[in-house]
Structure formats: C-alpha cells, structure tokens
C-alpha cells in the first residue's frame, strides 16, 4: 500500500482509524480544548502576576529568604484562592478532554476493532504486529493512569481492543500541546495561539519531525539501516523516522497491546511500513548491535530514574558502532525559571498523574548515559526548532553516539 494522504479537518488528519466526531462531539471537544488553552494561557499567566505582585514579597517577609525550591513556590501560591481555582479548573479541563473523546470512541469501537483486524490480515500489509500475551507490564506503567488518561495505557475491555490507542490519538490533539509559558500576558497569548488544535501538526508528529530534521543536518552522512522507537504508544512520532530514512527498517515497541494494535493499523492506513512489538524497553529481545538508531519521544518523563538507567544501558547494547541514541523529551529544570518549573513540571507531578516528571528534570542524563556505557564526550543535548509552519516551538532532546 502506498503512502496515503487524507483530508485534514480542524488541523487533524482524518485517516481511516481516527474516530469521527458528530457535531456535538466536535463542539464538546472544541470547548475542552479552548478551556485548556485558557488555563495554560492567560489564566496560567495570572499566577505569575500574583507571584510578582503579592505572594513573593509575602513569602520573603514570612521566611526571611527567597524560596529555595519549586515546592516552596507551589505551596505559597496554593494558599491563594486564584491559584486554587486555576489548578482545579486546569485539572477539570484535562478530565473534560477525555470525557469529550471517550464516548465518541466507544460508539465506534466495534468498527475500529474490525478495521484494525483487517489491516493485520491484509495481503497488502506493509509492516507487522507481534503481541506477547505473557508480557507483564512494569508496575510503574500499570499502576498509574498517566496524565489522567482513564484506564491508562493498558486497559483492555474487549477482545482485540484498540480503545486506549484510538482515544489517545484524538485527545492528543486536544491536550498534546506545549505546556504553559508564564512569561506574562503577551507571551501567554502567543502560547495560546500556538496551542491551536494540531499544534504538533495534522499527524501529531511534530516532535520527532523536529528532532529528525535536526539530526539530518547534524549528521548528514548518517544512514541508519535499522531504527527502533521505544515507548511508541500509537506511533505518532515513529512515522517521521520512516519518512526521513526511507531505506531503513523501522521497529517500534511498547508494553500496551491496545495501543500497539491501533499503532499498527494507523501506520498501515497511512501507508508507512513499521514493525511493532510488545516488549519492555529495559530488556528487549533484539540482539546486540542490531540498530543504528534508537529513539524515543516523550517516554523518559514517564519512567522511574532506575528504569531510565536500565533503558540507556539497553540502548548502548542495541546500538552498532557509530550508532545514535536520541531521546526527545522535556528539558532540564535548570533551563527554566522557577515559575515555569511549577507549571511545566511540578503541577503535573502533583495534579496530573505524572509522578516522575520532576525527577527527570533534575536528572543528569549525561551521567546516566555514561553509566550505561557511552563516553561522556559522546553525549549531547539541544532544542530542535519545530518544522510546523508558523510555529516557534523548540523541542528538547538528549542523545549519545556509540563509538
Ligand atoms: C508518553 S507515552 C509515549 C508517547 C509516544 N512516544 C508519542 O510520541 O506519542 C509513553 C508510552 O511508553 C510506554 N512505556 C512505558 N514504559 C515502557 C517500557 N518500559 N517499555 C516499553 N514501553 C513503555 C507506555 O505504554 C506509553 O505508551
């Protein structure tokens, strides 16, 4: 099947696996999305005004010092009714986005399951799907419903279920945007404008597309033969690697069967060849040196520190000499001012079921890579500019080259 293109409606590609909204679904989703943008935009910026004009001086008077840790600022702000309302409403906005999508996907679930089965058995299929019914997902995945996703990544309520993946694909366009910047009203308005539906592009692939474009410039003669994407969920950020290196074999792994079923069908629908496996990233079944490029997007912030150590060591084992590891995820806390740390990290840890995000922001990834086998001099990090037209977003990545 050739690479397919489909209509783009409200900034989202309507491929055959995408659940379609009725007028009322669409209206609810637009509301949830605008509500979230307001909370991230001008209402979020109100916390900065409150901090600058009132809470900071109050804190210094009470403690006779500036706040030392992001938790000091959070606790002081959360004594204010404005921040309490804002925080509750932001959490409501998150829940509303799921509530505006879930029933829509449920109504279409039998059709989506049938379509996914048809892609799996089609004679014209490009890639493959290998599930492991005996795989036990790690507890840090099974015990947490990340970012308040109902049922988390793993829930399966029916045979060949794809709900977790189908729902992720739709809510991604409502909430999968850059988090709030708190640099004042003008900055908040710019942020809100960037956060329109589909801020990661109509296929939701803007993060890997940006990092891939950076890699292409930085390593012009690099031609990976095999690529592995870790924690691919539904493959939003797997597919840019297929386009960037069309001669490479692309593999993607995740622990979630419902997400992988959807990911495989979606890749087939879009005409991209990817081989999906249900495996854990900390111990895969691939042989030593099998890959030239191992990538992940937005995976690290959902892992415990000890698992990040194990995954970096596994990346080292999997890479052939001169191979590259590239992890795209949020930047370190030291790149942010304290208020941005609260709104991009700390708030999510406390109120949005992202228990490990703050820990990642404090972790020295070069040190983790060195412990995993990479030479410290071969590690690098940076911010890749978005390739989406009109976007000024920059996406953080960390990488290392195996000698
Ligand atoms: C935030 S999502 C990743 C998003 C995805 N890469 C994207 O770009 O849209 C985290 C994913 O990692 C998966 N995951 C978490 N721990 C994992 C592990 N140890 N091995 C494989 N997958 C894992 C989860 O099931 C989930 O699908």
Secondary structure layout:
Blueprint: E1 8-9, E2 12-13, H1 23-40, H2 42-63, H3 70-77, H4 81-121, E3 128-130, H5 139-142, H6 163-175, H7 185-194, H8 206-218, E4 226-230, H9 239-244, E5 249-254, H10 257-269, E6 275-278, E7 291-297, H11 305-318, E8 319-328, H12 338-351, H13 357-362, H14 365-372, E9 379-385, E10 394-401
Parallel strand pairs: 3-6, 4-5, 4-7, 5-6, 7-8
Antiparallel strand pairs: 1-2, 8-10, 9-10
Helix pairs in contact: 1-2, 1-4, 2-7, 3-12, 4-6, 4-10, 6-10, 11-14
Bound molecules: S-adenosylmethionine (SAM).
Structural class call reads alpha/beta
Counted beta strands:
10
Which CATH top level class of the largest domain fits?
Alpha Beta
Q: Give helix % range.
A: 40-55%
Task: Give the mean pLDDT.
Answer: 92
Q: Detail the poorly predicted runs.
A: 176-186, 191-196
Question: What Rg do the Cα atoms give?
Answer: 21 Å
Number of helices: 14
* Annotated CATH homologous superfamily of the largest domain: Vaccinia Virus protein VP39
The neighbouring-strand order within the major sheet is 3-6-5-4-7-8-10-9
Give the distance, in angstroms, between the N- and C-terminal Cα atoms.
37 Å
User: In total, how many domains does the architecture comprise?
Assistant: 2
SSE order in H/E notation?
EEHHHHEHHHHEHEHEEHEHHHEE
Q: Looking at CATH, which topology of the largest domain would you report?
A: Rossmann fold
What is the CATH architecture assignment of the largest domain?
3-Layer(aba) Sandwich
User: Could you tell me which ligands this complex binds, including any ions or cofactors?
Assistant: S-adenosylmethionine
Shape: globular
């Amino acid at each position: 099947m050739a690479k397919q293109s489909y209509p783009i409606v409200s900034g989202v590609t309507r491929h055959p696996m995408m659940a379609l909204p009725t007028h009322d679904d669409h209206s609810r989703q637009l509301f949830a999305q605008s509500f979230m943008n307001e909370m991230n935009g001008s209402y979020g910026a109100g916390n900065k005004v409150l901090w600058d004009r009132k809470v900071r001086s109050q804190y210094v008077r009470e403690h006779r010092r500036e706040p030392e840790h992001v938790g000091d600022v959070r606790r002081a702000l959360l004594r204010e009714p404005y921040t309490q309302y804002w925080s509750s409403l932001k959490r409501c906005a998150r829940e509303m986005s799921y509530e505006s999508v879930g029933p829509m996907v449920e109504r279409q679930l039998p059709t989506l399951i049938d379509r996914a089965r048809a892609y799996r058995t089609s004679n014209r299929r490009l890639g493959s799907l290998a599930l492991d019914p005996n795989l036990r997902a790690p507890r840090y995945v099974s015990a947490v419903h990340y970012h308040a996703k109902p049922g988390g990544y793993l829930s399966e309520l029916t045979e060949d279920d794809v709900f977790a993946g189908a729902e992720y694909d739709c809510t991604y366009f409502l909430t999968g945007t850059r988090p709030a910047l708190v640099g004042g009203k003008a900055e908040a308005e710019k942020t809100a404008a960037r956060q329109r539906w589909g801020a990661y592009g109509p296929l939701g692939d803007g993060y890997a597309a940006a990092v891939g474009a950076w890699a292409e410039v930085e390593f012009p003669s690099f031609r990976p033969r095999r690529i592995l994407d870790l924690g691919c969920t539904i493959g939003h950020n797997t597919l840019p690697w297929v386009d960037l290196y069309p001669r490479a074999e692309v593999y993607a792994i995740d622990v979630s069967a419902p997400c992988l079923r959807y990911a495989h069908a979606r890749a087939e629908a879009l005409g991209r060849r990817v081989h999906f496996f249900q495996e854990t990233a900390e111990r895969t079944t691939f042989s030593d040196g099998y890959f030239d490029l191992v990538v992940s997007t937005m995976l690290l912030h959902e892992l415990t520190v000890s698992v990040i150590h194990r995954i970096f060591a596994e990346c080292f084992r999997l890479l052939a000499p001169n191979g590259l590891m590239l992890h795209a995820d949020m930047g370190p806390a030291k790149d942010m001012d304290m208020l941005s740390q609260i709104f991009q990290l700390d708030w999510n840890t406390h109120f949005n079921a992202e228990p490990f995000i703050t820990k990642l922001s404090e972790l020295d990834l070069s040190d983790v890579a060195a412990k995993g086998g990479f030479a410290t001099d071969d590690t690098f990090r940076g911010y890749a500019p978005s390739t989406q037209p009109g976007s000024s977003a920059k996406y953080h990545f960390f990488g290392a080259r195996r000698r």
